[in-house]
Amino acid sequence: MTQKKTAPDHQAGNPKANPITDSNQIKDPSDWVTGGEPMTGAQASYLKTLSEQAHDPEAYEAELDKAEASKRIDQLKEQTGR
Hints:
Helix content: 25-40%
Oligomer: single chain
Structural class: mainly alpha
Number of strands: 0
Low-confidence stretches: none
Shape: elongated
Mean pLDDT: 82
Distance between the termini: 50 Å
Order of helices and strands: HH
């Protein structure tokens, strides 16, 4: 008799699928070492899209740093239900 092999549960160890809330992976953007650097291109693009969807064009400012952009993205995601 052969035993059926089962595939490993890849989601069990995936921190994106199952984030640990008390983990040091989740930090306040104000505490980021690189938080004062200019926002990334991906942040700028996403922030622009969310600000348009929220009908709040003033939420997008090209000179934001990474930390502030992250906070605004979180606020707009909440506003738009994303």
